Fold each of these.
Amino acid sequence: MSDRQYILFYKPYGVLSQFTDDSATPRPTLKEYIDIPEVYSVGRLDFDSEGLLLLTNDGQLKHRLIDPQFEHSRTYWVQVEKIPTESALQSLRDGVTIQGYRTKPAIAKLLDSEPHLPAREPPIRFRANIPTAWLELTLTEGKNRQVRKMTAAVGFPTLRLVRVAIAHLRLENLAVGQSRILTDRELQELRLKVNPRSLR
């Protein structure tokens, strides 16, 4: 359908992944950045997280991407307190138990250096006597504050969280607060991933 919209957005820190906020003290929402009616985010990024959001008015595609049974990957760069041990990384890979739920296996690796990202406003708290490190963590599920809970469970609290990919869609070439329409090729690949039989 020609009226379907597919948008990638670099959500800033301190912005809700929705278009309205009915709280007593309203916070910034997507409405301040995206002027396309009737689109909704596919999954969420917490208020205090940053990075890639996909927005669409294609309900079937949205369902396929957020339903856990389809296991579509989401990749995050995660700044944590201290330097994670190999055993902690292996625990993340194997799955950790959070409030009675065991997470699915993940891909977890320590990045060799700090990734190239825009400075966060406000910056994270800095303590001279506590080092930090960056992880790349790829999950196939998206429970509430899951990444933060996972790193805390293995002893390395999250300080900054940036989603850099949803399936094959990447954050690169987007500035903070910027959005763009998916290319035809990106959309074709996405449709093939969510429904391999759709292009046969």
Note: The two ends are 18 Å apart (CA to CA).
Amino acid sequence: MFKHEIPNTPIHNTPPPLIEVSGSHREMGRQIGEAARAQVQNSVANAHILIDAAYNTLELTWDGAKIQARKYLPFAEERYPQYVGELRGIAEGANVPFDDVMTLNAMEAVSTDALHLTRCTSLAVNEERTADGHVLAAHNEDWIPEDESDVLIISARPDKEPPFLAMTYGGLLPNVGFNAYGIAQLIDSIYPSDSRIGIPRLVVARAVLSSKRISGAIGRTLVQHRAAGYNHLLVHESGEMYFIEVSARKFEILYAHEGYMVHTNHYLDPQMKQVEKDPEELLSSRVRYFRASRLLHQTEKHNIKSLQAIQKDHVNIPNSICNHNIAGADPLDREKTINALVIDLTSREMHIAWGNPCQNIYHTYHLNA
């Protein structure tokens, strides 16, 4: 239906690349960098271009961004040296300077959230709301179209942490996925007004995948000296589901009392709304939230296909759940859905469409722990 109606919608005839890594954090990073050298180099180049294109807004050059990113490094190294090690390994394996990889992973911080690009949608249903009693979580990842070619699936077996399966792209630390202890994490960017220099959000989110209990996963989202925060949708195989809405200094925990959860890119909790930066700029986030909520509640018993149908929705296009880059003009407003995934936590599977799910098929990956 949409093949000839929506421009700038690439078709991918192959699944996203799967990279299997193991060992120490530095070794795993190096394995990612070597296997995805082209993707890492491309994502760094795209970040450089994005900063340059946004100069009138950010008044920041790439060299300036690297200087800013270095301020966040000591906080990350003190609390999570193992994940800084992954970043160093990625840089080594991909033959790119570590400063570039660090800047990539601190981009939200160094741009002071001016790049309102991430318009992700996350939702989940527990065993009470599925036809087969499985626990399901779904996520549309929205970002600049140039990074769509850099999407990767990482299957990791760290020496001292749980195995996990996650989606990432280019040189970013993996964090959207699930681990062998039945804990899944989806993240949505939110925009707090209390951001500060501290541990970058992506490093905080990476640590969640190392959790063995849901309380530990929640605790990792709230680590001290965090630079800012995401919304973390945390799902446990038991059917327990939480939103952890986080800023640099505040947080709130929301619980799925009815077995459904939906989140986009604005705070839901009244206390957290008080620290939301420029809420009037987040109207499309609210539209997506209400639309996804309505669609989720229309079905009494969900399955993987019903969640995938929600991921393909085009109400309020181009800023729809299935987000499209139609105009492609403003460098700060060119995001699109670069992948859509559904996690079956009960089966330890990830079903992912590379690119817009309205036109690309889903491929299945298993966590072999």
Note: Residues 62-79 form the longest helix (18 residues).
